[in-house]
Amino acid sequence: MPAPHPLAALLVGAAGGRFPPADGGWRRVPPWRAGLEAVVAFTGHAVLAVDDDRDDERLRALGVDGTGGAHHPRVVSALAGAGGWIDSLDAVLVARGTGRGGPLVERADLQDHPRVTFATALRDDVRVLGPPDGGRSAVAVLGAGIAGLTELSFELEPSHRGRGAGAALVAAALDAVPAGEPVLSAVAPGNAASLRALLRAGGVPVGSVQLFRRSR
To answer: Cross-referenced Gene3D superfamilies, in alphabetical order (predicted)?
Structure first.
């Protein structure tokens, strides 16, 4: 079994209140998935999961630091290069699996859902779950994502939004994960509905992430 990615311990520790030192510094670690890189920020500390041969001084010259500079647009733009793919800047929350099983079932019919397509391009060992009612298209996607940890994304049908169903869907997805296992979610800060659903279901904010792929 491969050793855990070094970023995994930082994320899980932050969920328990043990953050990296808020020293304004930053560190470099290898990417957790070939071809996918990231900038991750905690309070006063940043981590670059990059496959980059630039020395630290050149990265500092771009503005990399642990107090917001690592997420400056010029940093990720320079790392990705012209034509590279850059994802949105997301908040990262950590919850825990309950191991209860829960009501969700495997839904192979949702494989073409945009949320599933996006997750499959970024994560490994993806599971597609949804309500047992085949007429519904709500989806919860679990897979090995950020730092190799289990990552959850989800989406409700518009007709079911606004009544607490998002938090219930997240809770049901956590039931499908072994008890105590960390479950990460990355959500755009502007997506207030999903952010509230994750918070209500027990998600704890730990930092931020921006994924990117280099131009070829």
So the answer is: 3.40.630.30
In a domain, 210, yes or no: no
CATH code of the domain containing 143: 3.40.630
Instruction: Please indicate, yes or no, whether residues 101 and 186 belong to a single structural domain of this protein.
Output: yes
Other Cβ atoms closer than 10 A to 33: 18
Which amino acid, one-letter code, is at 4? P
pLDDT of residue 2 exceeding 80, the answer is no
Read off the DSSP letter of residue 148.
Answer: G
The string of pLDDT tens digits covering residues 140-184 is 999 999 999 999 999 999 888 887 899 999 999 999 999 999 999
By CB atoms closer than 10 A (0-12, 13-18, 19+), residue 7 is buried
Going by C-alpha positions, the residue among 39, 35, 107 that lies closest to residue 70 is 39
Judge residue 1's burial from the number of C-beta atoms within 10 Å of its C-beta, 0-12 exposed, 13-18 middle, 19 or more buried: exposed
Task: Locate 31 and state its tokens.
Answer: 């990417």
Q: The tokens 């904010």 sit on which residue? A: 205
Question: What interhelical angle do 165-175 and 192-200 show, nearest 10?
Answer: 50
Output the six-digit token pair for 145. Answer: 């994502």
Phi, psi torsion values for 172, nearest 5 degrees: -65, -40
Phi, psi of 89 (to 5 degrees): -85, 120
Q: Is there a single domain that holds both residue 26 and residue 129? A: no
- Say whether both 125 and 74 belong to one domain: no
What is the domain range of residue 30? 6-91
Please, are residues 145 and 184 in contact by the beta-carbon 8 Å criterion?
yes
pTM: 0.95
